[in-house]
Design goal:
globular, single chain, alpha/beta, 47% helix, 9 helices, 7-stranded parallel β-sheet, Rossmann fold
Amino acid sequence: MSDDQNLAVYKSLAGKSVFITGGGSGIGESLVRHFVAQGSKVAFVDVAEVPSRALVAELGGKPLFIPCDLRNIEALKAAVVEAVAANGPIDVLCNNAGNDDRHQTADVSVDYWDDRMAVNVRHQFFAAQAVRPYMKAQGGGSIINFGSITVMVGDGDCPAYVTSKAAIWGMTRALAREFGPERIRVNCMVPGWVMTERQMRLWLNEAGEKQIAERQCLPDRVQPSDIARMALFLAADDSRMCTSQQFVVDAGWI
């Protein structure tokens, strides 16, 4: 992030209360870092406590970490209440958390299917439901749901994940229409292949490098910070008339 001094500062984000799911690593960690750097009051949830607490310590204790397994909706709702008590009513929700473990259709059980829906899409809906009253009372807010280009590509090695991410786009459209009269904007972030530690460790091999070279228009690798910077724009007042849209950051993959 050494080049951030040359990038945008959104004055409207200073002091805003931001709630981020899955903020302990990967894209979520970058979201936490970037919103803190903008002067926002950040709370984030994650199931992984060790990296999450390390991130809080590195950032001088500024973000609030609330341990939470997002499959537990009551725990998620309680986390929102705790975040509001600490940072004030939620202005921005980043529905980032998800898991793209690989699987084949023949191996998917009913329990695994239901778990993938719970991990990837169900909590996004209920987080939006939980923050809506706060945003409505304040005259508006920004909800950023996280989809994936796997929906557009139609990847064949994670059908339950692709299905869940497709549902997020439909949910975004429906919530944007319902919440719009309250000046609550709902958009869908669509990352490409982002070079998180997990992605590089599990799947970035020689074949993966070749695929990136063939599919992306741009030669550079998409970084978590590239996603976070788009999220800053969607959270800020600069994007006040942007809602019910997909914002793709994939270096031209699709």
